[in-house]
Specification:
Largest sheet: 6 strands, parallel
Oligomer: single chain
Helix content: 40-55%
CATH architecture of the largest domain: 3-Layer(aba) Sandwich
CATH class of the largest domain: Alpha Beta
Distance between the termini: 51 Å
Strand order of the largest sheet: 9-8-10-11-7-12
Radius of gyration: 23 Å
Number of strands: 12
Strand content: 15-25%
Structural class: alpha/beta
Order of helices and strands: EEHHEEHHEEHEHEHHEEHEHEH
Number of domains: 2
CATH superfamily of the largest domain: P-loop containing nucleotide triphosphate hydrolases
């Protein structure tokens, strides 16, 4: 469907956009017009709704960006995908970044253009769509490379997308098992003080991996696959001495692996396997003076062909909008220090 620009005169203070599907327009506005309110407060514009039209009032640059955001979100709805507050925030942040990169060009109101490459990951429970350009590049790298690194702050989808690709490759018969691992680094509580046997002590460290798997596989099927060891979730120390063939292997929180642990893990790569290493360089929990294996791997392996490094920033955060703001605040403080 086509979104009509009824008025787009940059010399006036207003512009009207016409949306052909009233039901989609309701979803675009959001409950109690919360999506419109978010756009208004961020861009400093006023959005008025009349029938199937939205009138954007404000400065030319701000209303052009508002039109871009509204059009992009409407196109998302046309493809059958929902529009959540995180989607609105993402479009606002990415739109601002794109406009800044282009020097703030604003001679006319350009509508969102369809036809861009779509990247999707099929799992048993849902279709996963990377939302930012960095996430799309990362997913392509996971399919194209036997060894891939995803480095960036929390909330950017590094682990979630890696697990989704692993499930997709397993469903497609490209690998025979999925192995998910994390360093069981103690951060505040000693493992020995926690109740239960070793599994009980370690499982809390692995919970984010279980959460991701539950999003992609039906509960009974997941439980059976774990019982049959088709899916393994284990601390990094349990990888020693193994050769991992025809497996999709994810090492999460890799910034907490030592240099020796990282070398040990990387050399487990076997025939027909894929390996993904994810981490956040700003959240190292290793004892003072112990070098992070992620930093060493980045330094030593960046020039080796067929090993990809993908980087994320606060602009790629897809959790609550405040998470992006928090990360940016800490980044700015680190730069000043």
């Amino acid at each position: 469907m086509t979104i009509s620009v009824l008025t787009a005169d940059t010399q006036t203070s207003g512009a009207a956009l016409e949306f052909p599907d009233n039901f989609l327009l309701i979803d675009l506005c959001g409950e109690y017009d919360r999506n419109l309110t978010a756009i208004e407060s961020t861009l400093g514009v006023q959005i008025l709704r009349r029938g199937n039209q939205l009138s954007v009032i404000g400065e030319p640059g701000a209303r052009a960006m508002a039109a871009d955001v509204l059009s992009a979100l409407y196109q998302r709805l046309e493809t059958g995908k929902p529009v959540e507050p995180a989607d609105v925030d993402r479009e606002l942040r990415l739109g601002a970044a794109a406009r800044e990169a282009s020097g703030g060009a604003d001679s006319q109101m350009e509508m969102f253009k369809g036809g861009e490459e779509r990247v999707e990951i099929k799992t048993r429970r849902k279709l996963v769509e990377p939302r930012t350009e960095a996430q799309k590049a990362y997913v392509r790298a996971l399919f194209d490379n036997e060894l891939a690194f995803g480095i960036g702050p929390a909330g950017t989808g590094k682990t979630y997308l890696a697990v989704a690709v692993g499930v997709s490759m397993f469903i497609g018969g490209h690998v025979d098992k999925i192995i998910l691992s994390r360093p069981a680094v103690e951060a505040g509580e000693k493992l020995g003080y926690l109740p239960g046997d070793m599994k009980d002590k370690v499982d809390p460290y692995m919970q984010p991996l279980y959460d991701a798997l539950n999003d992609f596989l039906p509960g009974k099927q997941l439980a059976k696959m774990i019982e049959e060891k088709v899916i393994e979730i284990a601390p990094l120390a349990f990888m020693r001495g193994r050769t991992l063939s025809r497996a999709f292997v994810v090492l999460d929180e890799a910034q907490n692996a030592t240099s020796m642990q990282m070398k040990m893990f990387l050399t487990r790569l076997g025939e027909g396997s894929r390996m993904v290493i994810t981490g956040d360089r700003t959240q190292v929990d290793l004892p003072r003076g112990v070098a992070s294996g992620l930093a060493d791997a980045e330094r030593l392996l960046h020039s080796i062909p067929k090993i990809s490094f993908n980087y994320f920033t606060a602009k790629d955060v897809v959790r609550h909008p405040l998470v992006a703001a928090i990360i940016e605040a800490y980044d700015k403080d680190a730069e000043r220090g």
